[in-house]
Design goal:
By secondary structure, the chain is an alpha/beta fold. The chain folds into two domains: about 160 residues, Rossmann fold; about 180 residues, 3-Layer(aba) Sandwich (Rossmann fold), CATH 3.40.50. Helix content is about 35%, strand content about 20%. The strands form four sheets. Strands 3-2-1-4-5-6-18-19 form an eight-stranded mixed sheet, with helices on both faces. Strands 11-10-9-12-13-15-14 form a seven-stranded mixed sheet, sandwiched between helices. Helix 10 links the parallel strand 12 and strand 13. Helix 1 runs parallel beside helix 11, helix 6 runs parallel beside helix 7 and helix 6 packs antiparallel against helix 11. The mean pLDDT is about 95.
């Protein structure tokens, strides 16, 4: 079976789905690997790195033509979809609920696609979970980005000229990204507070040293490990509960996303107007609309002295590490799905059932 590694075409994307180290492991397991030219260059992996471990490096068209399996990170673009036919098995983060048009086009081609973002959050799937591995890095990077944009330092510092009080950091969403953001901000010496609709996250946040802001009334349990959309009543109570912390915060990081839906608005324009002059918001949910009403994806916004940076949970700025982790997730996924280098299609298994969006032209998940 020939596995094709495609170069990412999304704007700003620097990662690659399979690194040379993981490509070698696939080859050692009996697969052939074909890599699109310069697929790993933005992650500092050269074409020669792939050739040295036994992979072929080809132009884009040849990769599509010669491969049985095509792997990438982001959804297939319009040009790529034109090169797909019925023998192809595709693996990427499809976000199928947000891309019904792509799902239909793949089905019309008679192809098969697995979506990495649809993995169930169960213990057996942890080593394949790309959302967790990438979000972990995004949470870290969000704090570093915030520290760079702030005009204050994080830790308490006592000097001969006076005492510098520690910065205050508020984190919305205590998932993988939020937990890493808490840990990083605490290590840098900040006072950290956090809030989440899922009450089960309280203990996790507090174990890392954050004060958890509890919202009056019942919270929500997770849905297969993912956050669910909050009711309007709960959202109103959450705003009231966190306003005091929000208006004191020097750095705010938002990470709240609901699979297949627009990101919930957690910070309104009116709230931004009451924040401290010089405060910074890093909105990791901007690709799906943003948690801050004023966020614009990849475009800084300054409102009443508050700097707002809309970005994504995809940590392109640390592409070498991010590619290493994504590639290992992808390797574990491929090995799980195959036997004697052929796909098993065991639909009785939860992992296969949840991630197999289209099988040989038949749409299974909408």
């Amino acid at each position: 079976m020939k596995i094709g590694i495609l170069k990412e075409t999304a704007k700003g994307e620097k990662r690659v789905s399979i690194t040379p180290k993981i490509a070698k492991q696939l080859i050692d397991n009996g697969f052939e690997v074909i890599v699109e030219e310069d697929a790993g260059s933005s992650s500092k992996f050269k074409n020669s790195d792939y050739r040295e471990i036994g992979a072929l490096v080809e132009k884009r068209g040849a990769v599509y033509k010669e491969s049985d399996v095509l792997v990438k990170i982001n959804p297939f673009d319009e040009d790529g979809l034109k090169l797909i036919d019925s023998h192809h098995i595709l693996i990427c983060q499809l976000f199928h609920k947000s891309h019904p048009d792509i799902v239909k086009e793949i089905a019309d081609k008679g192809a098969t696609i697995f979506s990495m973002d649809a993995l169930p959050r169960i213990s057996r799937a942890q080593d394949m979970d790309v959302l967790s591995s990438q979000s972990n890095l995004a949470g870290y990077k969000a704090v570093i980005k915030g520290a760079y944009e702030m005009t204050k330092i994080f830790p308490l510092m006592m000097t001969a000229a006076g005492t510098i009080t520690p910065s205050r950091v508020l984190i919305y969403g205590v998932g993988v990204a939020g937990l890493q953001a808490i840990a990083t901000a605490k290590r840098l010496g900040a006072i950290v507070e956090a809030t989440d609709i899922r009450l089960e996250t309280k203990e996790q946040a507090e174990s890392l040293g954050a004060k958890f802001i509890t919202v009056e009334g019942n919270g929500e349990d997770s849905d297969k490990g993912y956050a669910k959309a909050a009711s309007d009543e709960y959202a109103k109570k959450q705003k009231e509960a966190v306003n005091n912390s929000l208006f004191k915060a020097d750095l705010v990081i938002t990470t709240a996303m609901v699979p297949g839906r627009k990101s919930p608005i957690l910070i309104t324009e009116e709230q931004v107007k009451q924040m401290k002059n010089g405060a910074v918001i890093i909105d990791l949910a901007a690709a799906q609309g943003g948690n801050c009403e004023l966020s614009k994806l990849n475009k800084p916004v300054i409102k009443n002295g508050v700097k707002i940076f809309g970005t994504t949970i995809a940590p392109e700025s640390v592409s070498t590490n991010a590619s290493d982790l994504y590639a290992k997730n992808m390797y574990n996924f491929i090995i799980f799905l195959t036997e004697n280098n052929e796909f098993k299609f065991d639909l009785e298994d939860e992992i296969t059932d949840e991630t197999l969006i289209v099988k040989q032209g038949v749409i299974r998940k909408t």
